[in-house]
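Example record

One chain of 99 residues, shown exactly as stored in the release files.
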Amino acid sequence: MAGTTQGDQDAGGATVPLETAGLLRALGAVNQLVPRVVGELASGQMLPDRQREFAKLLQRLAAVLHEHADNQTSGNAATPQNAASCGLLPKSLRHLVEP
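Predicted structure tokens for this chain:
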């Protein structure tokens, strides 16, 4: 994409645009959360407030993914506006991915 700032390298060693790298990091963080969320939901241990917070995180991530796709379709290389909020996990969910 013209004018795109270079970001991280993907698994194959290719450099991906900065906004794509941020999206990939956000997806990876959510991917780490899902097994724990499933376990807590199945055992009845996930509090309703944390369920709502995780749902909001998924909604923000979905918005970033939609915006990323729209930017690719339109040729706009701008960083999605919601990427920063999706890249940071809420404090109440951080324990799910931190050692």
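Notes: The first strand starts at residue 6 and ends at 9.
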